[in-house]
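Example (one chain per record):
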Amino acid sequence: MIGKLLKLSLGRRQLHSIISQEIIKPSSPTPSHLYTYNLSSVDQLAAKAYMPVVFFYPNNDNCTLTSQDKARVLKESLSQTLTRYYPVAGRMFSPITPYVDCNDEGVVFIEARINSNLENYLHLSQLDRNFDLLFANDLVNYKSPCNTSLVGVQFNHFACGGLVLAVSMSHIIARYGSSDHQEVFPYIPHIIQFPRTNSIQPESRAREVDHTNVISKKFVFPNSKLSDLKKLVDIDINPSRVVVLTSLLYKTAAKAATKRSGFFKTSYIFMMVNMSNKFVKKLPQSTFGNIAPSILIPTDRHTSETSLSKVVEDIKKTMSRELEGIHSVHQIGEYLKVSRSNRCNHDNLENVVNGSYWCSSLCRFPFKNMDFGWGKPVDTKYLLRCSHKNGFMMVDTKNGDGIEASVVLEKENMEIFENDKEMLSFCQK
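Predicted structure:
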């Protein structure tokens, strides 16, 4: 009942009010020779989408900082960060513009008051539209064509004293950041200067789908269970825990879809692959930009019935075949051009779109350690707004002893998925 009342109230914006809004600029101006940041061929082909993340901070009685102090800390930190990551403070005036104008226009910073308790939001699904109120200038959506900003920040003060920091960043300027990153102070990003390209990439036709009948649920897989899961796979394959869990989730989802419809439909996995270790010249951990192409992995007709080893093997073989010989950012870009063209010319493009399961992993990224002086977040949510109905997002558990998977499926498929005995046997009880 409380949840329903919350949704109705938030829908009328009665619980939400803007306290202040300002533009945060870099603490030091960007040098003239860096005014233009040319996008790499990979970034030009990346989805023109936003990556929305919310950090939940409960009221901390041991913290002496006032709300105003906390906002000031965030603004100062953001201003200093923008000096180092100068493209973030710029503008990309068109979705097909092959560069960022590093004009120091800055990042919007909004403070808002939410007349509700933090606890109410902690239990909402990542797909819940009430989260939109927590983000600046509609930057939570898959696409926000009216915005030329690359990043938006909103600091939300809750009635209970809790705080939510909502940050949304354009996917095309996301920092690479390897999963084994070691924190270094002072932190200096490695921003590669690419040559200007004459060709302008067409805007992606991908659009945000209707999530009316789509739900998201979390499933936690402890490392001990993941170790048991890996034992089911042929020892010669030796997959990572992310690959083996992706295989289990996909196999279970495909089985649920088949059971619901009564017949098998060819389906695909869109999987992001970290290419940093494939380069002849290793890139620094602080490299700025996308270096993770998405691979389309077609599946065997009997995926829902086959062994886990076969699914893992199919994934690894496809990765090896598709990415063989790629050793630079430029080569990734050329691969993505060909790959996109092949997808658009696929004999059954509609089935590729509707029958795809996207998969992304943020495991080993330190989002859960975002402490600005009032403690670490009690929870972090990555809002799953994308161009596909089905997918999996994986992050580390808060204690680091496993993987938390957010699974997005159509409601009828989820009802079958969440009761799958094999999948549940590897979940935290």
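Caption: The mean pLDDT is 81.
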